[in-house]
From TrEMBL:
<feature type="domain" description="PPE">
    <location>
        <begin position="24"/>
        <end position="118"/>
    </location>
</feature>
<protein>
    <submittedName>
        <fullName>PPE family protein</fullName>
    </submittedName>
</protein>
<dbReference type="InterPro" id="IPR038332">
    <property type="entry name" value="PPE_sf"/>
</dbReference>
<comment type="similarity">
    <text>Belongs to the mycobacterial PPE family.</text>
</comment>
<dbReference type="Pfam" id="PF00823">
    <property type="entry name" value="PPE"/>
</dbReference>
<dbReference type="InterPro" id="IPR000030">
    <property type="entry name" value="PPE_dom"/>
</dbReference>
């Protein structure tokens, strides 16, 4: 996989979601622990590839006295091509691991920052006030409803902000590099 890839811009308008839908969006499939394991796997692959680069470099250097001439030069050229590819692959694997770890962190932060929905059901509130027979509650009902609606809307707006911040962090964590095909190790390449 080579070439420039752009990270798509989201076309989601969270303003059209209910608070319950926003919370479900941040909770569904959100498993930062598993993502952390995946990130560690990529980082481990990057380290193993770096170890391979070091081994190729040592083998190439060690071959200079023992193997000279065209055969030795061809071997060292093949080692150099393999080493360059492995170095790029090691850096890309490490970058992918860092990106996955950053995305896991963004998902965990979003889950932690997501406010609970604030219930706002004017009909139920009115029924409860009328059914309770408390005249004082009925008199203050308009103010109570307006305050509860404001609380619910403030929490929903915060939830919207959490999701937009999560999406930005997820996009920002996408690695810029990509893996390339391994080189031909033949001198006929």
């Amino acid at each position: 996989m080579t070439g420039d890839r752009g990270t798509p811009e989201p076309d989601v308008r969270y303003e059209s979601y209910s608070h319950e839908q926003l919370k479900a969006e941040v909770d569904a499939g959100n498993d930062p622990e598993s993502a952390g394991e995946i990130a560690r796997g990529w980082a481990g692959l990057g380290q193993r590839l770096q170890d391979a680069v070091d081994a190729l470099t040592a083998a190439s250097s060690g071959s200079e006295e023992a193997w000279q001439g065209q055969g030795g030069e061809a071997l060292r050229a093949a080692f150099a091509r393999a080493g360059q590819w492995a170095q790029h692959a090691a850096e890309t694997a490490s970058e992918v691991g860092g990106g996955v770890a950053a995305q896991a962190g963004a998902a965990a932060r979003a889950r932690a920052a997501m406010p609970e929905p604030v219930a706002y059901d004017p009909a139920a509130t009115i029924r409860d006030a009328v059914g309770g027979g408390d005249l004082a509650a009925l008199v203050g009902l308009t103010d109570a409803l307006a305050e509860r609606r404001e609380q619910a809307e403030r929490a929903r707006r915060q939830a919207i902000d959490v999701l937009y911040a999560r999406d930005r962090a997820l996009r920002d964590a996408v690695p810029a590099g990509s893996f390339t095909a391994p080189p031909s190790l033949s001198s006929r390449a």
